[in-house]
Amino acid sequence: MSTGFSRRDFLLSGAGASLYAFAPSIFGAPKARKARVVVLGAGFGGATAAKYIKRWAPEIEVTVIERNASFISCPQSNLILSGARTLEQLTTRYDTLGKAYGIHFIRDEAVAVDHDRKVVRLKRGKAVPYDRLILSPGIDLDYSALPGIADESKRQHVLHAWKAGPQTVALRKQLEGIPDGGVYALTIPKAPYRCPPGPYERVSLVASYFREAKPKSKIIVLDANPDIVSKKGLFTAAWNELYPGIVDYRPNNALQDVDPATLTAKTDFDTVKADVLNVVPPNKAGAIAFQAGVINADERWSKVDFVSYESTSVPGIHVIGDATVSSPAPKSGHVANQQGKIAAAAVVSLLRGEQPYASPVFSNTCYSWVSNTEAVHVAAVYRYDATKQALAVAEGTGVSEKRTTAEAEFARAWASNVWSDALL
Amino acid sequence: MKTNKRLRTALPLAIALMAEGALAQETLTPGSLVAASCAACHNTQGRSVEGTPVIAGIAREQFINSFKEFQSGARKATVMHRHAKGYNDQEIELLADYFSAQKR
């Protein structure tokens, strides 16, 4: 039985924390309480952060607020569109992680962060106190500049499928219903958005389905960006060689509005009527990041210190994953997984009254499938540059020379390993 | 005897479970943090579940030699030659120390 308090408990950071640490126990003797970390969102970033805090500091109480019972992986979800994967194969329940590491999962939605009192307010349950908060809110989809579909009720047939889940399955159904000779149109928002190569992988895999099932069908890509954002040569080679005549790629074609009744997309230059219209609208950090007051870049992202991932606006709140400005590192599940570990380490150190590791370095590999059997990659190592206070790309970054079946095997293996690292 | 038989099977299982529990925790060091990056493709502690090599328990020298060969291009790879170039000698030592100390 512990009667006194350890150095770790003693060194809980902040004045509020010390008050708690010396609160009298029922026996009247000073008794330390455990440090408390709350993680909002259990995607690649949040789930990883929670697990690694418990690996490195079992004495810290970790609570995860997550609205879903299971994790669904965005990486590999475009394979649902080509019929090579099911949603079940991309789904992992959170129970295992919670039990294995003693992480307390609360299935609820965070509606407010009170950083003065250091509590998170929930939609249903009672408020949860924290000493340090890790925000891993992912993205929200921003329809505000698209009046025709700004209202959710107008979007029943105009899917994004940019968060893997029911929409991904629904989009596959829409594609199955398309007539041979029909048109699938995909609109891509201006970068930065979640998963830079994702839209082009989607185009490739829908083309693969069309080639096999509906060879007269066409794909029209309306890209707000001036060019293919990622792995350009590899995607264009796949489109030209594997799917000739199917992909009509139109750069500099930012979506202006949508008529949901006729499935028509309007850009500055084009009006495209589709049989299936798939709109990926501009992305922004998840809503709770706005509420928490950590949005301080382009009115949609959060700037962080790359040693600790602490917000540059609000002390005590660490932000990881797609919601951050981590350029040149992409908004990828792999990067969120890496940032989850660096933030976890920093939070553990800070709660122990120690300095976080000063020169974090991490790798990223983004695999993209160009058919059901072939994949390509972009890989890089990022390290913190203290002089510039920014992430720098280390030597060695690059993309595959060509698409291969070997890389498809590695893409599959990558998913199994990163899911295990984050969730098991 | 029945009881002994049961003990003989239960005891190693109990020890194995304790070992598994202990494996779930580790000390936070620069090495364990830098090595955590590798886990995205090689799983936690380098205990790969599919496709990539299990690097948990790799001999220290073998790890360093492989890494240097990836850096120089002497050893061919699809992605490791890129990642290897991003790490400095001190970090390679940290990684080698970490992975050679892990149970397979």
Provide an overview of this structure.
The complex is a heterodimer of chains A (424) and B (104). With 424 residues, chain A is α/β, with parallel strands linked by helices. In chain A, 28% of the residues lie in helices and 24% in strands. Chain A contains 11 helices and 23 strands. In chain A, the strands form 7 sheets. A 5-stranded parallel sheet of chain A has the order 5-2-1-9-19, with helices on one face. In chain A, strands 13-12-11-17 form a 4-stranded parallel sheet, covered by helices on one side. In chain A, strands 20, 21, 22 and 23 form a 4-stranded antiparallel sheet that branches. Chain A starts with 6 loop residues before the first helix and ends with a helix. Residues 1-28 of chain A have low confidence and may be disordered. Chain B has 104 residues and is mostly helical. Chain B has a single domain (27-100), classed as Orthogonal Bundle (Cytochrome Bc1 Complex, Chain D, domain 2), CATH 1.10.760. In chain B, helix 2 crosses helix 6 and helix 4 packs antiparallel against helix 6 (89-100). Mean pLDDT of chain B is 85; it is low at 1-8 and 10-23. Chains A and B meet through helix 3, helix 10, strand 20, strand 21 and helix 11 of A and helix 2, helix 3 and helix 5 of B.
